Amino acid sequence: MSGKLEKLLCGIHQQSHCHPVGNATTGLCLALAALGLRGKRVAIPNSVCPNVPLAVLLSGNAPVYLDVTTRDLGIDIAELIGKGGQVDAVIAVHAYGSVCNIREIAAYCKSRGIPLIEDLAVAQGASLDGQPVGSFSDIAVVSFGAGKIIDVGHGGAVLTSRLFVLNELVAREAALGVQTAASKEAVSAFGQYHTDLYNRHYGPGINAFSTAFKTRALALRQHILCSFDRARGPEIEEQLEKLDGVVQSRRERAETLEGLLARCESVGMEILRPPAGSVPWRFNVLIERRDALLKSLLVKGFRISSWFPSADLFFEDRAVSGVNAAVSDHIGDRVLNLWVNEDADREYIAAVADELTDHLALDSV
Ligand SMILES: *Cc1c(COP(=O)(O)O)cnc(C)c1O
Asked: What residues form the membrane-spanning segments (predicted)?
């Protein structure tokens, strides 16, 4: 049961048990089920990829979308305390690789006796005062999917200190199979639908499509929930051995960008500086009237994105849900994510910084 991959991950994240899964969405869904949660309310940060609310929904629970703070891009603890009485579990996400306020969130969950799941899908290698992410919670979930810190295009893992949770999770996973080619296609078609919807409507306009989006997302169940393909294990192990180097090079690229863009801060750009110990998934800045700039950069062939619009916009009608998401909306409307992975060579970094600098200089006159 406990092979090399499991041992490696337990070592990196200071947890005692590990079980690889087909992807992190499956991991989150199984984790909630293994905790015995059904028909419950699960708090998540609202500035997050749609897979997180999707996992909550697929587990038979309801997401509670909490606003975030620009300090660390995670759940705002004041929001959690405010809504706390209404939630039965929390998924704390180290979103964008930024270490969230995990200590206070963990203390709060403990005080109420509710479970905490830590999502480090894009934060592997991050730490808080030297303690690795994934070690602060009852259950932690990591991803090795496309675009993650360790990216082999498949897989994830659940880590836990509780053997009971591990056993429950394994028992529930038995009903799932390895993802078929047809299922992979269905998941990628859904991803395209999500991107197209976003590209056509950007922020609040997305909300008009929430009913259709949610229906289609729920129909993805049999395609997205899957077990780990053991054949991919060695590749992940090999990459994990190099994690420190990967983290280091991402930090160096982010530092370079920060240096090049510092002077833009006086002309309307806000650089989001994550807390010490974070791993930059992408380098994030906030810019007013972002969409025209984003479109022009995409036309020029730059790798650039603007994740994430507030997640609730995709799943719930605001007029009904009444979700308060002032900060996550603020981020969603202004954020630009610059690449800092191995694709971001010197040329890209210099060129994208030039583009932003020129645009802001023009925009400010
Ligand atoms: C990508 C992502 C997931 C889902 O990971 P998959 O392995 O693709 O299912 C979950 N949470 C966060 C924060 C992510 O970025």
From this structure: none
